Structures are given as C-alpha cells and as structure tokens.
Give the backbone structure.
Amino acid sequence: LAALERQVFDFLGYQWAPILANFLHIIIVILGLFGTIQYRPRYIVVYAIWTAVWVTWNIFIICFYLEVGGLSKDSELLTFNISRHQSWWSENGPGCVRKEASMSGIKGLDNHSYISVIGCALEYRYIEVMHSSFQILIALVGFVYACYVVSVFTEEEDSFDFIGGFDPFPLYHVNEKPTNLLFKQTYLLLFPTGFSGMKEMSK
C-alpha cells in the first residue's frame, strides 16, 4: 500500500525514474507474497535480494533531495531529462499556496506565467525524504521476514525428507508370504502330479 501511494504521487509529478522503480517494486512484492502463499522459497529469495536493491535506491533518493555528493534536487535526473517537472509535493505540500504571475510584459515570454509557492509548512524535499525513509524501514522488516520464512520452509523440507529414514520398519511395506507357502508353490510347479510324478522321474 505504501508503494502504491508513492506511485500515485510520483505519477502526479511526472517523476519517471521513481515510477519505474515503484512499478518493479510492486511486482516483486506480489511475487514474494505469491511465493509465501504457494510455498515457493525461490520467489521469496528473489524478494529478499530485491529489498537490498530497493534500500539502495531509496538511499539515493534521500541523497538526491538532500543534495548530498554534488546531487541537486532541481536537476532533471528523475525525469530522464524529458521535462522540468519536480515532485508533486513542491506545489501541493501541507500549507502551500500556489500563485501564478503573468509574464506577458517580458519579451519572449508572452503567454507564459511564473509560478511561486509560498507558505509551505514543510519543504517538499523533506516529505520525499520521509517517504524514502519509511520505504527503507518497511524493506528491512520485509527482508528479515523473508529470511525467516525461507529458513522455516527449508527446515520443513529437510524434516520431510528424513521422515521414517531411521525407522527399523518401513512405513509402507509389502506383506511377504511365509516361507512354507513359497515352498509349497515351488513344489507344485515342479511336481504337478504329486508323488506319482516323483516315481516316474525316479524310473
């Protein structure tokens, strides 16, 4: 649900890189849930590996909005340089008031408007940082849970393989015929005529 909520706001802000990352994350989460329900440890391992990638991506988003390491929140990196859109929260955050001023008086900027945002209770980059931090927290919990489920499934498979392995008698066995019954059957096959057949063979 948290990924879907984030996907909606990234769509509203035309943030194409986060949209793609969120889409992959939702697919992997569904795959992990399917693996848990259908007893498929490999799918859960894929989810566990993806959580490491997801944590790395969210750390990058945090660094991007906090402008760590030469990154700039005003760059077009998250939109693949297709547009100059920013986060949806930059104009629609809590307490933000969006104002448009006409630029018709400036040559070359006719029919354009300047948008200013004032009164924001919380700057949009901190909202994005909180979103990413929450995603990291959920991913860490999901990683621990995935490792636990895989270990439980592995233990169950091992115990199932060795059920009855050390029992003196097999769980399912074929009833063997008594030795004297087998001897009688062999005797009848060799001497179907009884004692008369044995006398004829002796002659």
Summary: The radius of gyration is 37 Å. The beta strands are 97-102, 113-118.
